[in-house]
Amino acid sequence: MKRNKLVVVGVGHVGSYVLADAMKLGLFAEIAVIDSDKDVAFGEALDQAHATSLTYMSNTTVRSGDYSECADADVIICAAGPSMLKSEDDKMPDRAQLAAVNAEVIREVMTGITKYTKDAIIILITNPLDTMVYIAENEFGYPKGRVFGTGTMLDSARLRKIIADNYDIDPKSVTGYMMGEHGHTAFPVLSRLNVQGFGEKELDQVFQGKEPLSRERVKQQVVKAAFDVLNGKGWTNAGVAQAAVTLAKAVMLDERSVYPVCTTLHGQYGYDGDVALSMPCIVGRNGVEQQLEISIDSQEMEWLHQSAEYIKEAMKVAKTGKNS
């Protein structure tokens, strides 16, 4: 009998949150945990197993194991490798610094997974995300669409929160998202932002904003939001874990939800197989069912090219891509 199964690879700050959120989802009968530190994997699984005795918790079977657990997995969420490095001075930490370290981690993880499956949907969180997605998607012969990254989902949530706070409204009333790199060069697609039909140019007239809407300022605020969390507690985990679990749910329920996730571009915006970045995509049972190339204005297009070039620099460090 086939039971819904999730595998979580890497249970550090982010992966442990993914595990906790997935346990509460009520969607997986089985969750397996893999970590290079087997004691940590065992402890996290056991801790969550004890919690299944409590009221309101699903009786999910949770255990630690090795890559053979991937053989019958429906979804694999990978949060392996160190996340952002906290900066010693007051500069913004750069995810690209992690490119060389985590490229090896992702290659090791994908080697382990592909020994047992090329069917499971793989959702990546590991930074620098766009480069890691590119490696996982293009170096292991994995079927198209079945590997993707959480992308700018969290950046987009931060964008909606910033807009909502400015106009004193519920962030769920804001439709809008970030595109490009999950990192410094992510940019808001403000030409497509709206609040129940009111667009970028109307917001200041309709709602009483604390300050007028400014593209540059919004872009900076979203990037700084990650920095604020990181320098406050030393890492970011709650938001991105929730994004990954939301995507897992979209896959399992074949929701065909539209989210800005990270995939390799195939002809969109002038890029063809040479970079992975975030754009709106339909996410369903087969992973990324369709990439949606939305028209963006000239400033946004300029930002997209800057973002793609920045990602390509990290790809060089990770020794991947067409030029390496």
Q: Per CATH, what is the topology of the largest domain? A: L-2-Hydroxyisocaproate Dehydrogenase, Chain A, domain 2
| Total domains | 2
Provide the helix percentage.
25-40%
- In the predicted model, the low-confidence regions spanning at least 5 consecutive residues are none
End-to-end C-alpha gap: 45 Å
Major sheet description: 6 strands, parallel
Question: Which CATH architecture of the largest domain is right?
Answer: Alpha-Beta Complex
CATH superfamily of the largest domain: Lactate dehydrogenase/glycoside hydrolase, family 4, C-terminal
- Report strand %: 15-25%
- N-to-C order of helices and strands: EHEHEEHEHEHEEEEEHHHEEEH
* Beta strand count: 14
Q: Main sheet: which strands, in order across? A: 3-2-1-4-5-6
Instruction: Quickly give the structural class.
Output: alpha/beta
Description:
Pfam families: Ldh_1_C (PF02866), Ldh_1_N (PF00056). Residues 5-149 form the Lactate/malate dehydrogenase N-terminal domain. NAD(+) binds at residues 10-15, 35, 102, 125-127. The chain folds into 2 domains: 5-149, NAD(P)-binding Rossmann-like Domain (Rossmann fold, 3-Layer(aba) Sandwich); 153-317, Alpha-Beta Complex (L-2-Hydroxyisocaproate Dehydrogenase, Chain A, domain 2). 46% of the residues are buried. It is of the alpha/beta class and 324 residues long. It has helices spanning 13-25, 38-51, 99-114, 129-138, 153-167, 203-206, 215-233, 238-252, 298-317; strands spanning 5-9, 30-34, 61-64, 75-78, 121-124, 147-149, 174-175, 178-179, 187-188, 194-195, 198-199, 257-266, 272-284, 287-291. The model has no long low-confidence stretch (mean pLDDT 93). The protein has 9 helices and 14 strands. A 6-stranded parallel sheet has the order 3-2-1-4-5-6, sandwiched between helices. Strands 7-10-11 form a 3-stranded antiparallel sheet, covered by helices on one side. It has a 3-stranded antiparallel sheet with strand order 12-13-14.
